[in-house]
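Before going further, learn to read the protein records used in this course. The integers have meaning only within a learned vocabulary of local backbone shapes. To see the layout at work, look at the sequence and tokens printed below.
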Amino acid sequence: MDYYLEPAKKLSVREFDVVVAGGGTGGVVAALAAARQGAKTALVESKGYLGGIVVEGGTALHSFYNLWKAFPGVEKRQVVKGIPEEIIQRLLKRGATTGHVESLVGYDYDSVCTAIDTELYKLTVFEMLMEAGVHVFVNTLLVSAVMEGSRIKGVIVESRAGREMFAAKAFVDCTGYGDLSAFAGADYIEPNDHPVANSIGVGGVNIEKYYEYFKKLDAISEYSEGPRSGKDGQIVRVGVNMNKLPPQFLAKCREIGMALVTTSVHDDYFMFIKLNYKMPVSPTNRDEVVKAELELRRRQEKAIEILREIPGCEKAFIARTSPSLCIRRGRCINCDYDITLDDVIEGRHFEDDIMSYGFHDLAPRYQIKNGGTYGIPYRALCVSKVDNLLAAGMIITSNWEAHMSTRNTVACMGQGQAAGTAAALCAKKSVGTRELPYSELRDALIKDGVYLENI
């Protein structure tokens, strides 16, 4: 059979003001922001928990601050606040984050280290969403969009409860893969310009001995101290300059794409050890992803074997893995404005800024000028060709070098707050995303604690 014609059937319809697709890094914040604006908000997430790359793929949250330590005389400023900072404060009460501790080595990369407990992050944001009245649908797949001209009328979702349509006035795509935008007919590219990864949590390790070993090799590239297991002044981040490692050891690490940078908020535990794999095609290719998933699991086993060669890690074991591989980019969605590398490193701001950001993942090669910030314009979230859809997170910004800033966790969180707020305001006024007066969005963001540099 070349094809099968699926019979039509009636679906039950649920009405919302805003639907947020994807309960990851940006989606959690988008749903919180929309609900707090009074919108009846649905959050659709395929997994059974929330948090996305924050709890699956990173080492720390980059970054709530400007890069002040790399530029003597530049003022220290927290430039991402609002809901993302509220999440950190909730985690602090649980002892589930280091908070924003300063980098002692490697501050030309990031001036702070914000490490988190991945499991308590999942719990904390879930509780916050329920408190805000968000209708959370986990273990639920987004499978299609129902279009009415250039507007999304609703999305089709499937779960063990069956197949349904969620209708809404405004939509936010935070899927990471740009699934909703693709279903809605938006233009996109699939550059396949980043490796995929599956980071592991590693137990049975001693971070002090780990640090001392690499210090003797003069290989420490990042170092931070903060609270760990309830005690202050402990090592919470160690990064290693791979080029200073013994050649045979370095070859083993590179063979499996392993980076020796980690964070921890608990004794005897590395929160993240990252394993990378470059796929030959885009990670939207299901059949190739099967091969990548298997390869990454094999690399995890090899990673433990390598780690056991390091003093303090002789009894290392895998304590946590992600349920599926993590991406840095799948689809890149065409939006009304495409952020450039010059926008980022020149510290440009726009008349429609929705956040300020000061981190670049390729620092010190690329840094925002003079330890400042750049702005992300509202236009960069508006999906071209669709009237009521906003995109946030790793699915915006086509230029690879610029994307190495805008895709980072805290940038995604800030974009999420703006997108969720805008979607709620659009739904309330029954207008499209381009009809919303920027002044109303700006005022709402400032009221909710967002820092805008150009105000």
